[in-house]
Amino acid sequence: MKSGSDLLFSPLSLLRFYLWLLGTALLLQGTISLLLILANIEPLEYLAKLLTSDRLHAAIHIGWGMAILGLLKTVNRDRFLAGLGFAFGGFYLMLGVLGAIAEYPLGMTLRWSEDLFHLVVGPVALLLSWKTLTLKGDRHYTQDSGKVFKRSGASNLK
Fold first, then answer.
1. pTM
2. What φ, ψ does residue 136 adopt, rounded to 5°?
3. Burial (Cβ within 10 Å: 0-12, 13-18, ≥19) of residue 95
4. What is the pLDDT of residues 95-113, one digit of tens each?
């Protein structure tokens, strides 16, 4: 039987925490950015570095934030969460690469710091998702306690 610290630092637990953190941060950052853009308010200089000045980019952050948080709240399957991490990681890695090589990727104006952010969060999500899929068995995490229950008879992730 695994100890509590093994479960706390398992790839799935780390992926789940990472996705919660990213979903929350993206939703907040995108919402604040979009509200400031729509109100035509220039943020303070130190805040401007954390916010985006592009409507589409803000909308993408809001969409991903809502999707991640909604799915984390409703789905508790290893394979699905790994798939979510792969989808997010692949999209953000692609966005980072496009931002680094194209002037206006997908019609957006991205700063180098935003490209760097995309080039970091994407691969980390991909790595955590890959590590999660290397687990054996089908595990279900309860909403309330976070305890792990291995289902008998399951040989592969579902």
1. 0.77
2. -100, 145
3. buried
4. 999 999 998 888 898 888 8
